[in-house]
Amino acid sequence: MALRHFLARLRNLLPARAASEPTTPAARWHSVSSCREYALCPRRYRYSYVERLAPDRLVPDSWRYGTVVHRALEAAYRVRVAGASTLEMEEAAVAALHRAWDTERLPDDDAAWRDRAERLVRRTVAAELVRDDDILGVEHRFRVRTYGGVAFTGYADLVLRRDSHTVEIVDHKITRNAADRRTLKQDQQLNLYGWLAKNEWPWARRILATHHYPPASTTVTVELTEESMESTMRDLARTARWAAADADYHPTPGVHCGHCPWAARCPAATC
């Protein structure tokens, strides 16, 4: 009995580990979007990627419309992986479109706009761009910690196996303004995905990158080079290290303040 009382008193005298020991912060994942945000405005980066604040205001309708169409196509290709028919893909896409329309808080009183979006996804699905056995991933998350100690991640809309040594990365763009091939070869997002794809699938000796433009029913495809992928990774890693080392996140006000979701709370905003 005396020993039990002694041990109880001893425990009360010891400091509480949970309260006194510092916790190790979780590693920060970097992406093309986060690096671009930091380069544009460190304060905006802090709000989005460090503090992870909810936006103070909605982004423009056109941006949210693109998100809605992306969600519809994602749903269609996910059921395609399971062997769904074209009709089943259309049904999945339209259902996802209506859910996302409400989630993104797009106007309910513009039935023509919603109908146009529905026709767009139906037409895209009906084109049967890929077979189910082509698909390596839908909204596929790439991630790696091995580039100079910097952790990178990214989500590709669609990843396809084109043959025994070729991977194609497809990025849906909800616009009619197609990029030229030179621009695509230098696109940071596609080059990051290409580098990460080679890391995930070592058998991939060729990386194709495609912008898919559903409104124009067209695609633009290029083959990425080792040089462009490696150069992109070096540039992104440099920006990511600056962001990770920053403690102040000084704002850089400018015209971009006009569409910043956190402008209302930023003392330097110029909008």
Structure notes:
This protein is α+β, with helices and mostly antiparallel strands. The chain has a five-stranded mixed sheet. The longest helix has 21 residues. β2 and β3 form a beta hairpin. It is built from ten helices and five strands, in the order αααααααβββααββα.
Q: What secondary-structure arrangement, pairings included, does this model have?
A:
Elements: H1 2-13, H2 17-20, H3 32-40, H4 42-50, H5 61-81, H6 86-103, H7 111-126, E1 135-147, E2 150-163, E3 166-172, H8 181-186, H9 188-200, E4 206-213, E5 218-223, H10 226-245
Parallel strand pairs: 3-4
Antiparallel strand pairs: 1-2, 2-3, 4-5
Structural class of the helices, strands and pairings? alpha+beta
Distance between the termini: 72 Å
Biggest pleated-sheet summary: 5 strands, mixed
Order of helices and strands: HHHHHHHEEEHHEEH
| Mean pLDDT, all residues | 88
Oligomer: single chain
Q: How big a fraction of the residues is strand?
A: 15-25%
Q: How many individual β-strands?
A: 5
Low confidence ranges: 1-26
Q: From the alpha-carbon coordinates, what is the Rg to the nearest angstrom?
A: 23 Å
Number of helices: 10
Helical fraction: 40-55%
Q: Choose one word for the global shape.
A: globular
For the largest beta sheet, what order do the strands appear in spatially?
A: 1-2-3-4-5
Offer a quick outline of the entry:
This protein is of the alpha+beta class. Helix 3 crosses helix 10 and helix 9 crosses helix 10. The relative contact order is 0.15.
